[in-house]
Write a structure and sequence with these properties.
The complex is a heterodimer of chains A (523) and B (297).
Chain A (H helix, E strand, L loop, with lengths): L1 H22 L7 E6 L14 H10 L4 E3 L5 E3 L2 E6 L5 E6 L13 H14 L9 E8 L2 E6 L6 H4 L10 H4 L21 E7 L3 E6 L13 E6 L3 H10 L4 E5 L2 H8 L4 E4 L8 E7 L9 H10 L2 H8 L5 E2 L22 H10 L11 E6 L6 H12 L3 E6 L4 H9 L5 E7 L4 H4 L1 H4 L19 H10 L5 H18 L2 E6 L3 E5 L2 E2 L16 E2 L2
Parallel strand pairs in A: 1-10, 1-11, 15-16, 15-17
Antiparallel strand pairs in A: 2-3, 4-5, 5-7, 6-7, 8-9, 9-10, 11-19, 12-19, 13-17, 13-18, 14-18, 20-21
Helix pairs in contact in A: 6-7, 8-10, 15-16
Chain B lengths: L3 H8 L1 H6 L2 H11 L1 H23 L31 H37 L1 H16 L2 H12 L3 H27 L3 H8 L4 H37 L10 H8 L8 H28 L7
Helix pairs in contact in B: 3-12, 4-5, 4-12, 5-6, 5-8, 5-10, 5-11, 6-8, 7-8, 8-10, 10-11, 10-12, 11-12
The chains are: A alpha+beta (523), B mainly alpha (297).
């Protein structure tokens, strides 16, 4: 009987797999509704950071390069590219048949214009800082001349960070940050054209019939519905009203959707976004200026409890400020696995005696938004175990938190910072002593300064040799694991949730911020 | 106190003449089963939260067991919350804070409301106009939003939350007080006192106010209940002091897990419900006892 049953199960399983195999032939056409979480300020990623703009922006604008699941650059607007031997010039050979949505051809002049615009307006200054000039020997060749070898350039040429925008539209003298065509009548270069952008409602994209990649995009229409509430998105996905949602990170909803038959829940991709949640210390003022205090606190935190109990196992372990999906992540760095005895010993040896209530001293902890409040609340009872009296400081809203932290008025804070592809773009800003800038959030607000760390970042940021860079970043992470300007809790669990009818949901290292021209609907 | 013989006695003329007004009020109050039930309930809750810590000494902030242990399991009467903190300990500590905030906020609103209402009602004219128009200004502001703004501006601490709740709920007290003052200031004994050249302060606080108290007491009592609800609403919106345990705080921090561990939200919710119910029942009883027109019911 049992045997018969297992035979039936096997047969069924085979039937299902073969059906899936059949369905994986891409079919063109159809309208797909997907969910996004926020209304972007506008749709032009050249002058606006963040994924809210990057997701629709990557559909509207093409970039010189695109990426697969394994950090390998793929041809996009550049059909081929080469780096000179001295590493000081990068040549892009553009595809010949590419046009903007208004029919104008995409030329090397637009590449120059786009790089200049990003360089002047985008908050990530390290992306194109070493680019001195861009030569254009002909309409389809652009040569980037660099002041030093600049490995981050390759990742910075993705559509999230370097969308190619038309010079004849955005070069009309108006401020690109507030250009009216950032939100309407967008003239893009990507697989989809803008049909309608209604704030807090939807962004409707239509197929670009003259897209330079043959036969793409598969979809006729891509509707991005703006649904802020995670539970509402979950219900819309379960009912089939919405076919795809990206950047999903609410543990409860993910756990629920994983059980849902019609949905695929995947954490593939997103490692270039590289979202990391950490506990940052003020390394210059107060008790946390003492390295031993920071180490003791790190030994007192139970990372497994946070990942398994609070994040329900949806998050991945991370020990350093570099995302574990990055090729430069160093697994051997000290992760400070929980050891309360050791933590107490460090504090005893450092001379922080307990008073009659068993407390050594008090510290404050901040948090900037509701989703990370629970980690701040966790620290209070947990650090009490080593005699630290933690006061949780609530901020009325995100700006008041950002003001406190960026003016260095804090002991500890919960934070969530993105790697943005190459460490040069998103990681160096947290540790560089040159980036201690009062009033700027997500600068080096820990005020950490170490000459060797600065030097290692300079070395790792100016060579293309991956192995050599790995060596520099390994030492970098070892030093930081000892000096601990911040203690990393986990890598944020971004997931792509798609209906089983969706083929090729975005799974590249840029996750939802990559072109969805190969996505299709079966049936 | 419910023997029919006694009830008959109070209705006889001699009995009424010999009983003091407060005793009479108490008599009416205690004959009201609902009010007595409310009082018993409130006293039990007070005993639970204020005597509780001496009997049940678990620290409400300490993580004692695995998160979301079900009520009754592993020796936890109410289970544990999302961090593995003992919900029973949280309920005890949270009750103190919720009730204290309720009382303090009600006291603030009564002090402000009575002063403004008394001056407006007593002086009349331009003073009344100015005071009552500003009262209306506060009354038309959406109360929850207004208190959120105050907490957002001054930061979420126990003091600011209490102050914010007090500051948004005084207009009702002011209006009740003013109405009473308008009525009482024209009564003979007030006129008599005034013609005896009594000072304004004496007239307001010693002559009129004691006689205007009954509706204010009822109002203040209900205000305690609404202040507790208010605090819960602010906590739910993450606008309360995270270092102080309150019932609203317990709801607020566990609410994202409501589908999986509803008890962590239901238990504090039920506690708030019981407390506010008790206070409302007492308020109703007081109203019946203090309002002469309803006494015949």
């Amino acid at each position: 009987m049992k045997r018969k049953l297992s035979l039936i199960v096997t047969a069924l399983a085979m039937a299902v797999t073969s059906h899936l195999g059949f369905a994986s032939e891409p079919t063109a056409g159809g309208t797909m509704v997907m969910a996004i979480q926020n209304t972007p300020r506008h749709l032009n990623p050249a002058v606006q950071s963040g994924t809210a703009t990057g997701v629709p922006g990557s559909q509207l604008f093409a970039a010189p390069l695109r990426y697969d699941e394994g950090w390998n650059p793929q041809p996009y607007l550049a059909e081929s590219w080469s780096v000179s031997d001295d590493g000081l010039s990068v040549t892009l050979n553009l595809v010949k048949n590419a046009t903007f949505h208004d029919g104008h051809p995409i030329t090397s002049a637009d590449i120059v214009f786009s790089i200049d615009t990003v360089k002047a307006n985008h908050p990530f200054k390290t992306m194109f800082a070493p680019v001195e000039t861009v030569d254009t020997p002909d309409e389809h060749t652009a040569i980037l001349r660099l002041s030093q070898p600049h490995p981050a350039l390759m990742l910075a040429m993705s559509s999230q960070l370097l969308p190619i925008i038309p010079k004849h539209v955005y070069g009309d003298g108006q401020d690109p940050k507030s250009h009216p065509q950032n939100s309407e009548n967008v003239v893009g270069s990507g697989p989809f054209k803008l049909a309608e952008f209604k704030r807090d409602q939807h962004i409707i994209l239509e197929k670009n019939e003259n897209y330079f990649m043959e036969g793409l995009p598969y979809l006729d229409k891509l509707v991005m519905r703006i649904i802020k509430d995670p539970s509402a998105r979950t219900i819309a996905l379960e009912s089939g009203e919405v076919m795809l949602s990206i950047f999903e990170e609410t543990p409860r909803d993910l756990a629920r959707m994983k059980k849902s038959d019609g949905l695929n829940v995947s954490s593939d991709g997103y490692s270039a976004i590289g979202s990391v949640v950490w506990l940052a210390f003020n390394t210059q003022n107060g008790k946390t200026a003492d390295k031993q205090v920071r180490q003791a606190i790190s030994y007192a935190i139970d990372r497994n409890f946070i990942i398994n109990a609070l994040m329900l196992g949806t998050a991945a372990e991370a020990k350093t400020g570099i995302h574990p999906g990055s090729p430069f992540y160093d697994e051997t760095a000290n992760g400070y696995d929980i050891d309360l005895d050791k933590a107490n010993l460090i504090l005893d040896d450092a001379g922080y005696a307990r008073d009659s209530d068993g407390m050594r001293f008090g510290l404050t902890i901040d948090y900037g938004w509701a989703e990370i409040k629970q980690f701040a609340e966790y620290m209070k009872p947990q650090l009490k175990k080593i005699g630290i009296d933690v006061t949780v400081r609530a901020s009325a809203d995100f700006p008041s938190w950002a003001k406190r932290i960026s003016n260095h008025d804090f002991d500890m804070t919960m934070d969530n910072v993105f790697n943005w592809g190459d460490p040069v773009i998103g990681v160096h800003r947290t540790y560089s002593s040159e980036n201690i800038k009062k009033g700027v959030i997500w600068s080096n607000t820990q005020q950490y300064a170490n000459a060797r760390v600065d030097e290692l970042m300079q070395l790792a940021g100016s060579t293309y040799d991956v192995e050599e860079r790995q060596k520099y970043y390994a030492e970098f992470q070892q030093i930081l694991a000892d000096e601990l300007p911040l203690y990393t809790l986990f890598a944020a669990p971004y997931h792509t949730v798609s209906n089983k009818k969706v083929g090729n949901p975005p799974k590249s290292i840029w996750g939802g911020s990559s072109p969805m021209d190969k996505m299709y609907l079966s049936e | 106190m419910s023997e029919p013989v006694q009830t008959n006695n109070t209705e006889s003329i001699e009995a009424i003449e010999t009983i003091s007004p407060w005793r009479e009020m108490a008599g009416i109050f205690f004959r009201n089963y609902e009010a007595v039930f409310g009082l018993v309930l409130l006293v039990s809750i007070m005993v639970f939260t204020f005597i509780g810590p001496f009997v049940y000494t678990t620290d409400p902030f300490e993580m004692v067991w695995a998160p979301f242990t079900r009520p009754g399991q592993e020796g936890f009467l109410f289970g544990t919350d999302y961090l593995g903190r003992d919900i029973l300990a949280e309920m005890i500590a949270g009750g103190q804070v919720s009730i204290a905030i309720g009382l303090a906020a009600a006291a603030i609103s009564v002090v402000i409301g009575v002063c403004i209402g008394a001056f407006a009602g007593y002086y009349g004219g331009i003073v009344e106009e100015a005071l009552m128009r500003s009262t209306e200004f506060f009354q038309v502001l959406p109360t929850l939003l207004f208190s959120m703004v105050i907490v957002a501006l001054f930061g979420a601490s126990l003091l600011t939350v209490t102050f914010a709740i007090g500051i948004v709920s005084w207009p009702a007290v002011a209006r009740v007080t003013r109405t009473e003052f308008l009525r009482i200031r024209e009564l003979e004994y007030v006129r008599a006192a005034r013609s005896g050249s009594a000072k304004d302060g004496y007239l307001i606080f010693r002559v009129i106010l004691p006689n205007a108290l009954p509706p204010i007491i009822v109002q203040a009592n209900l205000m305690v209940g609404s202040a507790i609800l208010f605090e819960a609403a602010l906590s739910f919106l993450n606008l309360s002091d995270p270092n102080v345990m309150s019932w609203g705080q317990v709801i607020g921090s566990n609410r994202t897990y409501i589908l999986d561990a509803g008890f962590a939200v239901a238990i504090p919710g039920f506690a708030i419900f019981l407390t506010v119910l008790a206070i409302s029942l007492i308020g109703d009883g007081l109203n019946d006892a203090l309002n002469p027109r309803l006494r015949q019911r």
